[in-house]
Amino acid sequence: MTNQNTFKNWLEAFNLEHPLVIAGPCSAETEDQVLKIAHQLKNTDTSVMRAGIWKPRTKPGNFEGVGKIGLDWLKKAKAETGLKIATEVANKTHVDLALEADVDVLWIGARSTVSPFIVQDIADALKGTDKIVLVKNPVNPDLSLWLGAVERLHKADIPNLGVIHRGFSTYEKTRYRNNPEWQLAVDLQNEFPDLPLIVDPSHIAGRRDIIFDICQTALDLNYDGIMVETHHLPDEAWSDLAQQITPEALDQMTKVLKIRKEHSEANEFKNKLNTLRTKIDVIDHQIINQLGKRMKIADEIGTLKKKNNVAILQTKRWNEILDKMIKEGTENGLSEDFVTKFLKAIHQESIAHQHKVLTGDKK
Fold first, then answer.
1. What does the alpha-carbon distance between residue 266 and residue 176 come to, in Å, rounded to a whole number?
2. What distance in Å separates the CA atoms of residue 298 and residue 169, rounded to the nearest whole number?
3. What is the pTM of this model?
4. Which residues contact 212 (CB under 8 A, 6 or more apart)?
5. Are 26 and 244 in contact (CB under 8 A)?
6. Residue 251 — pLDDT band, cuts 50, 70, 90?
7. How far apart are CA 273 and CA 74, in angstroms?
8. Which CATH superfamily is domain 4-256 in?
9. N or C: which end of the chain has fewer CB within 10 A?
10. Taking the alpha carbons of 314, 320, 322, 328 in that order, is the dihedral positive or negative?
11. With contact defined as beta carbons under 8 Å apart, do 145 and 138 qualify?
12. pLDDT value, residue 362
């Protein structure tokens, strides 16, 4: 992609002294519901009201949105409050109707991002628009697929682009509905620092009690905004009720969230930071060296197993190591999720080393 420096122009147009806040219900349910939430959001830091008009559901039979009529409710909310409005689009028909309703922000959902065919159809329908178009990360942690969707939109002469980080599906049960995989979003920032990055804590969390923590983590990582699902009666919402908060709770949250400075020119800060970073560099070097030594031992084990015709995977041994290391990691202030992922990566590399020994592959 080129012309990265133009991507944040639309953010500057909001003329905000804080990160962008997009908020509103998971789904537009009734006109009364949309308008009540809009008027409550008007008194918060919210600049854009979101609402799902078409709702892609995992299973058929669940509420799948009110459809076109919901756009009329959003238009009325915009007229009465001055808030900009946003909704998800998943095909050309959605795009045409949203543009006709003068929706200000359109986003492509995670299920759509996984399909280059769908993204291309949406890009063709939006070609040349000056609307803000945001791309949610694909369901699985695939950075190239995420950026590929942005690339298709950029090639369709859509200048006002951004991305939404909503977490990634996993078969393992964690404290999140969708694992944040923060490093992947950091990698995206490193590759395209001028591409606006917004966090969707509602879909990462799946429950309202950890939304604040996710928002704060995102701000600590220099995200440009948050998109939070809000409902005036969350427990009575027609979809995703557990992850929605009230506009009042949103208002309290945004007042408490801390916005970090990207840099500090204070000499004392820089000196202390450099000292701490040097310590981390030394430890990182030691970790890599120790891992290298560990893999050499894995090679020796592979040779021994080959000689005695023993299988690579020893499930009982692996489970014993995992249980012991999770306990030891917890005692050292490390989360079970981190220790598990770290050890699985090491285990996979050990298996790869032993496989090479057993097969004689020298690559």
1. 37
2. 32
3. 0.80
4. 253, 256, 257
5. yes
6. very high
7. 48
8. Aldolase class I (3.20.20.70)
9. C
10. negative
11. yes
12. 67
Amino acid letter, 76: K
Biggest CA pair distance of the chain: 78
SS3 266: coil
Give the integer Cα–Cα distance in Å for 223 and 164: 10
Structure tokens at 328: 């030891």
Helix H or strand E segment including 197:
strand 197-199
Domain boundaries, the chain: 4-256, 267-359
> What is the CATH T-level fold of the domain 267-359, as seen in this structure?
Chorismate Mutase Domain, subunit A (1.20.59)
Tokens describing residue 281: 């560099």
Residue 259 carries which side chain, given as an amino acid letter?
A: I
Residues 110, 166: contact at Cβ < 8 Å? yes
Task: Measure CA 332 to chain center.
Answer: 28
Q: Which of 88, 17, 31 is nearest to 57 (CA)?
A: 88
pLDDT in tens, 11-29: 999 999 899 999 999 999 9
